[in-house]
Amino acid sequence: MVAIRTITQMTAAARLRGYLADPSKTLMCPGVYDGLSARMALQEGFDCLYMTGSGTSMSRLGMADLGLTTLNDMRDNAAMISSLDRRAVMVGRTVAQYMQAGVAALHLEDQVQNKRCGHLRNKELVSEEIYLSRIRAAVNMREKLLGDIVIIARTDALQSLGFEACIERLQKAVSVGADVVFLEGVETKEQAAELCLRLHPTPVLYNAVSGGVSPNISVAEARELGFKIVIFPSVSTRQVVEGLSQVLRDLKENGALPKTSTTPKNVFELCGLQEVIDFDTAAGGSMYTNGV
């Protein structure tokens, strides 16, 4: 099948590249893991979403982020999220299927296939040779498919190999075609600043994980340090765990739901109710003539 891209239809990857080229812009990307969290982030006006692998694993499988999700799990979730809005949706994994899913970027890392969350200890790495071959393969597939997906080179080597080895891996990744670099588990602000300085002018991504090993910095601080993208992968899952746990405890203890101003219709409106009504009306339907 040959996909023909019209001039007026900008791809998510093209939008992302435009953001990266804007010297005044630092991307702020909340982590989302399903349709509802993505809709909520879009409603708040975020330009770019980050599909969190840990959130995908927990929401689809009910399992911790220990490399148990398959390509199909990730690709299907990415396709669903990216279909909600054609802004930049950043994800991690396989190039061809993600391009078909309409996502803007993916990150490729140097952990073994049976990976784990970047903010856990004792991560196992592949050799530098294998890592760079992954980047080359992604670049080659992008070129083969005439795509513009943004390739982010991630390294998890800081704990085991040290900072200088990470810089070297990322510099080599850029030399074989990576567009953005990502050092997981940055330990200090000084280290963060040095990273951006050494990799300049390549855009650098900062992973802001609350409670993780990296400093808790704001988007403004990240911009001053030299970062171009800041992701907040746990923002949705953390709030869901805290909020839903409290509601479930209250229900268990009291046998009744707490009062809320949110109605079922409010939630449905957030998730595209009006779009469905408009589509039905435009097609000549009358299913929603009397309202919902």
Please name the defining characteristics of this protein.
single chain, 292 residues, alpha/beta, TIM Barrel, 8-stranded parallel beta barrel, 47% helix, 12% strand, disordered N terminus, Isocitrate_lyase_ph_CS, Pyrv/PenolPyrv_kinase-like_dom, ICL/PEPM
| CATH class type of the largest domain | Alpha Beta
Low-confidence stretches: 1-8
Let me know the average pLDDT. 87
Shape: globular
Report the CATH architecture of the largest domain: Alpha-Beta Barrel
**Total beta strands:** 8
Q: What can be said about the biggest beta sheet?
A: 8 strands, parallel, barrel
- Considering DSSP H and I runs of 4 or more, what fraction of the residues is helical? 40-55%
CATH superfamily of the largest domain: Phosphoenolpyruvate-binding domains
Strand portion: 5-15%
DSSP summary: helix tally = 13
Strand order of the largest sheet: 1-2-3-4-5-6-7-8
CATH-defined topology of the largest domain: TIM Barrel
Distance between the termini: 40 Å
Count of discrete structural domains = 2
